[in-house]
Amino acid sequence: MNQPFLSVAWRSSTRRPLARAWRASLLLAAALSCSAGVQAANDAATVLKGSKVTESNLLDALTPVPEDVTTRSLRVTRDGAPVVPPRRASASLLITFETNSAQLTAAAKQQLSVVAAALKNNRLAEYTFSVEGHADPRGSAETNLTLSQQRADSVREYLVSAHGIAPERLQAQGKGDVELLNRKVPAAAENRRVTIVTNTK
Questions:
Q1: Average confidence (pLDDT) over 95-114
Q2: Domains of the chain, first to last
Q3: Given its phi and psi angles, is residue 37 left (phi above 0), alpha (psi -120 to 50 degrees) or beta?
Q4: pTM, full prediction
Q5: 50 or 11, which is more confident?
């Protein structure tokens, strides 16, 4: 006879803490989901290839978002609305290379000519950039890291030597195979990309 009463009393005394914990969990999950969705959308939106590699598109992708428009960290406000970090000012390009090589193809050089024009534009003249090389996960992690660094170096060297971009404005960095855009298809072309990232600090 006492069991139902004890059960009701326990539920009554803990209902509010449980409700608060449940609400907090839902808010956190929503915030994380929103953040992941925004990041995925931003990544997808900034992968440029073919006719999309234009000076205008590159300027839009590489121009940093003003500080007073966005925040730099994920948080949940008092009313429960998630605040997501701003998109990273970057543009991913499907720069092509010879197989297992860091040698740029003619098509890659044509794309990089457009990149150079954007970097010389007054909108970006004050910024420096990271040139990130990415590889798909075929092969060993060590090999992919080396290859991605060589490809980033090739892009940087071409922009400097062929287009006169000041070398101090560009830093080459190999990222290996750890930042895949398409995890469902590891060998997808977008995983073998070069990303130009605007340095804002």
A1: 86
A2: 2-199 (3.30.1330.60)
A3: alpha
A4: 0.68
A5: 50
